[in-house]
Write a structure and sequence with these properties.
The chain is built from eight helices and three strands. It has 184 residues and is mainly alpha-helical. A hairpin with a 3-residue loop joins strand 1 and strand 2. The longest helix has 30 residues.
């Protein structure tokens, strides 16, 4: 999106670094242990997002497994891919970027759903007298990836909006969708 002045090049580099950091944090958050459930004194279960999805599948909870996989793994990965693509698209292809950004805006509203689900799980288990929860690094990495992605989406949307106003190639119909200002 940004063009050639040194400030723009630094901004382009910084946003690409942030997108890469969000991807790494998401992958760590998916694979690393998120929490340990301690039941009574001798029973402990440690969960990562991947192990939880695998356990749901093995236990026959296919619909729940697919929902969690879609919203907690596939959607965040797609969101990061779209952010990378939109940010690195030349201004000449601005109309297509606006369309991608519109989809990102529509899907972005679901980006904190997975963090909310884990928080509800923590709260419900904390209320139990016979069980306790220990939070691990994976949960923090996962939440950081969601927050970073929201910040990057806002920055990319603002840059696309500015470029759309400057570009003679962007027709007013594609900017009137409200997508650039809505990405979260």
């Amino acid at each position: 999106m940004p063009s050639s002045p040194p400030r723009r090049r630094r901004e382009r580099f910084l946003v690409n670094v942030l997108i890469t950091c969000a991807l790494v944090a998401l992958l760590v958050g998916i694979a690393a242990p998120m929490l340990t459930l301690k039941k009574l004194v001798w029973i402990t279960n440690q969960f990562s997002l991947l192990s939880g999805v695998g356990a749901l599948w093995r236990e026959g909870h296919y619909l729940l497994c697919l929902i969690i996989t879609a919203f907690s793994i596939v959607l965040p990965l797609c969101k990061i891919a779209v952010l990378y693509r939109v940010w690195n698209t030349p201004t000449e292809r601005l109309r297509r970027s606006l369309r991608y950004l519109h989809w990102l805006s529509a899907l972005g509203k679901w980006s904190m759903l997975d963090v909310f689900v884990v928080a509800v799980l923590l709260a419900s288990v904390k209320l139990g007298a016979l069980a306790s929860v220990e939070v691990h690094f994976g949960l923090y990495a996962f939440a950081a990836a969601a927050a970073l992605t929201m910040i990057i989406a806002h920055r990319v949307a603002r840059a696309v909006d500015v470029a759309a106003r400057r570009s003679p190639l962007a027709d007013s119909g594609s900017r009137s969708s409200g997508a650039p200002g809505e990405a979260r």
